């Protein structure tokens, strides 16, 4: 599943905007493939300098004031928007990669084997 993000990210620390976006996409993509994924465990941690969108103890993406300024909104507003985007992608990926989906695939496989055996 290819994930395309429709939001911009500014340079932060030693990482360019493109590197930050790529890392966020990789983290979310890898997380989305976990069998026990629970998209409702996405949460937000605020600091004075940036706000992190987290899953358990893993930082998925950090939002800075510069990111918010680029989008023309407050940092809190941008975080709410981005958190929803991340949650939506994780819910979609759970449908594709989650344990119930895997069980469903095994059941279809067993039904197919049973039909072939008759």
Mean pLDDT, rounded to whole units? 80
How many β-strands, per DSSP?
Answer: 3
What is the helix/strand order?
Answer: HEEEHHH
Report the sheet-strand fraction. 15-25%
Please state the overall shape, judged from the principal axes of the Cα atoms.
Answer: elongated
Helix/strand class: alpha+beta
Low-confidence segments: 1-8
Strand order of the largest sheet: 1-2-3
Task: Count the domains.
Answer: 1
Largest sheet: 3 strands, antiparallel
Outline the structure in words:
There is one protein chain. The chain has helices at residues 17-32, 65-71, 75-97, 99-117, and strands at residues 42-46, 50-55, 58-64. Strand 2 and strand 3 form a beta hairpin. It has one domain. Helices cover 55% and strands 15% of the residues. Helix 1 (17-32) runs parallel beside helix 3 (75-97), helix 2 crosses helix 3 (75-97) and helix 3 runs parallel beside helix 4 (99-117). The model is unreliable at 1-8 (pLDDT under 50). It is elongated and about 65 Å long. Strands 1-2-3 form a 3-stranded antiparallel β-sheet. The longest helix is centred in the C-terminal third of the chain and has 23 residues, at 75-97. The protein is α+β, with helices and mostly antiparallel strands.
